[in-house]
């Protein structure tokens, strides 16, 4: 999930305009990086509702700290770090609270949505359930690679683990997901 | 087994995207307004002031000229100079004509004449 093309204006120019309070410029940045920010948050939190909250908070924090963005051309990377930190902070808080299991949380949010596209909602629900069975690091690796489009080396740097370990986590995460999704599909066929 | 798993269903759909953008921009309004207000350039501010200030000065100058030409000077008798019309004390008039600086004694005399 790379940045969405929202016109030709560079990040650097948009950041400078947003620093002066230009609403349109900041909205363009939000639209451009919403998808990748969301993927980063989801990789940390696994819950869509929490991920959405973390994304919102991160965009507001980024705006408040926009003067600290030393390289406006690298706004995307800077923002993703804020999203990740924010998501981790939410995750720590959630752990302390020791709330409901992830798969239940996922279902709760699924039913909260209008669900115009039922097929998509169903696939999403299955994916969330399958992701909830992975370890934290496996989930992060597979989402960063297969959803965000990170390379192995980038994930290794980001998570501070060897590149070989990233490949290993990715392999086992994909296998587990396919098994989970395959089982769910099989159960669906049997029910039908 | 090494192919990507299609996780695109996890991405926010169009409606979710719009809701998220709207929520972020709503929360960002205060900070953007604060930044826009803080961004007033002093030169721009000065230029904003300059135009009405110049206009006001022009009005004052026009009124003053009007008063000087049609008011006090209208009563000036032919043959009298501007210094007479403006009631400039005679010693001061002399200093002006002779283009010299007054002495302390000159000033005392001029003040004395002015009070009488």
* Oligomer category: heterodimer
The CATH architecture of one domain in chain A: Orthogonal Bundle
Q: What count of helical segments of chain A does DSSP give?
A: 9
Q: Please give the count of helices of chain B.
A: 5
What does the secondary structure layout of this molecule look like, with pairings?
The complex is a heterodimer of chains A (192) and B (116).
Chain A lengths: L10 H9 L3 H23 L2 H17 L10 H23 L4 H11 L5 H15 L3 H11 L5 H8 L3 H29 L1
Helix pairs in contact in A: 1-2, 2-3, 2-4, 2-7, 3-4, 5-6, 6-9, 7-9, 8-9
Chain B lengths: L13 H25 L3 H29 L11 H4 L4 H9 L5 H12 L1
Provide a descriptive summary of the structure in words.
The complex is a heterodimer of chains A (192) and B (116). With 192 residues, chain A is an all-alpha fold. Chain A has a domain at 1-99: RNA polymerase sigma factor, region 2, helix turn helix motif (Rna Polymerase Sigma Factor, Chain: A), CATH 1.10.1740. Chain A is built from 9 helices and no strands. In chain A, helix 2 (23-45) packs across helix 4, helix 5 runs antiparallel to helix 6 and helix 7 (136-146) packs across helix 9. Chain B is mainly alpha-helical and 116 residues long. The longest helix of chain B has 29 residues, at 42-70. The interface between A and B is large, with 44 and 33 residues.
Name its key features.
heterodimer, A: 192 residues, mainly alpha, Rna Polymerase Sigma Factor, Chain: A, globular, B: 116 residues, 5 helices, 0% strand
């Amino acid at each position: 999930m790379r940045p969405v093309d929202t016109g030709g204006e560079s990040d650097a120019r948009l950041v400078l305009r947003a620093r002066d309070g230009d609403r349109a410029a900041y909205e363009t940045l939000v639209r451009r990086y919403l998808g990748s920010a969301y993927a980063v948050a989801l990789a940390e939190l696994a819950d869509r509702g929490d991920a959405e909250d973390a994304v919102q908070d991160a965009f507001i924090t980024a705006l408040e700290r926009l003067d600290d963005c030393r390289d406006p051309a690298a706004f995307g990377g800077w923002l993703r770090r804020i999203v990740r930190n924010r998501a981790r902070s939410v995750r720590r808080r959630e752990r302390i609270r020791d709330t409901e299991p992830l798969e239940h949380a996922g279902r709760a949010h699924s039913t909260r949505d209008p669900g115009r596209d039922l097929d998509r909602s169903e696939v999403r629900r299955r994916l969330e359930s399958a992701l909830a069975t992975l370890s934290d690091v496996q989930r992060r690796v597979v989402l960063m690679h297969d959803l965000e489009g990170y390379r192995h080396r980038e994930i290794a740097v980001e998570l501070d683990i060897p590149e070989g370990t990233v490949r290993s986590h990715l392999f086992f995460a994909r296998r587990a997901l396919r098994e989970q999704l395959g089982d769910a599909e099989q159960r669906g066929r049997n029910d039908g | 087994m090494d192919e990507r798993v299609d996780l695109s269903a996890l991405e926010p759909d169009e409606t979710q995207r719009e809701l998220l953008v709207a929520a972020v921009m709503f929360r960002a309004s205060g900070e953007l307004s604060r930044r826009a207000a803080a961004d007033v350039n002093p030169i721009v501010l000065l230029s904003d002031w300059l135009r009405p200030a110049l206009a006001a000065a022009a009005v004052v100058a026009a009124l003053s000229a009007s008063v000087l030409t049609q008011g006090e000077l209208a009563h000036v008798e032919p043959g009298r100079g501007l210094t007479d019309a403006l009631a400039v004390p005679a010693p001061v008039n002399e200093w002006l004509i002779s283009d010299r600086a007054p002495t302390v004694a000159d000033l005392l005399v001029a003040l004395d004449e002015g009070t009488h």
